Amino acid sequence: MRIIDVHTHPILRDDHRGRTGAEQLLARARAHGIRQVVVLGDVLAFGRSPNAAQIRLINDETHELMCRHPEFVTGFCHLNPTLGAPAVRAEVARCVARGFRGLKLEIANNAADAVMRPLMEEARRHHLIVLQHAWSMTKIGERAFHTDPEDVATLARRFPDVRIIMAHLTGCGVRGVQAVKACPNVVVDTSGAAPETGMVEYAVEQLGAGRILYGSDAPIRDFGVAIARITGSRLDLRTQRKILHDNAAALLGLK
After folding, report:
1. Which residues fall in a coiled-coil region (predicted)?
2. How far from 195 is each of 10, 118, 171, 190, 201, CA to CA, in Å?
């Protein structure tokens, strides 16, 4: 079965392997039948709020992988919205010119913040997908920079014509599925924490098979375990194919 992984981080400074580690991870992806990976960059390399130079370095590393593996790697541009509209627009323009197909947000700010507007306007203008980190949390003191599923829903309602991937189905859980259920421009990737029995089936039941995408969060998570969330589920093969490949292929415009 062909697979597209919409959530990977091949370069991580914490593992001290750099290019060698990235090449090893991409080789493992191929060995698992993965035909395309979305590379999101080392988004926490410089903490939760990287400066403009650090953002450029992260995206340069992603672009290097895109150049080395043009038929295998799709790049998403990492951004820090708190740097302001001029910085955001400049980096989006730079990444679009290099063939990036989406934008990646981590924990520099909450997705419901007003600082997201320039980024979302650029996403709309360039037809980019926005992949937003999210997790069901109870640490209210972190809401200034952490995005809960309800915050993703707020963002989606403000920009209904921008396509959004809410990351981490297992981390968002039932609460996350219900939060974005009424937002047709939001799809959910299956990455995040250990597999939970029945969670993928629940997401399909509530959102429809067309709104679920396979993602691993590799190398933080293992490809085999991440794929088994889908292949080991009670979903029929047609639905599994949609989640593992077809939905992402359509969203990313891949042949």
Report:
1. none
2. 21, 35, 10, 9, 12
Domain 3-252 sits in which CATH superfamily?
Metal-dependent hydrolases (3.20.20.140)
pTM of the model: 0.97
Residue 152 DSSP SS3? helix
Measured distance between the N- and C-terminal CA atoms of the chain, rounded to whole angstroms: 16
120: closest CA among 162, 91, 85? 162
Q: Is the pLDDT of residue 120 over 70?
A: yes
Report the SS3 class of residue 213: strand
Residue ranges per domain, the chain? 3-252
The model's pLDDT over 60-98, given as tens digits with 9 standing for 90+, comes to 999 999 999 999 999 999 999 999 999 999 999 999 999
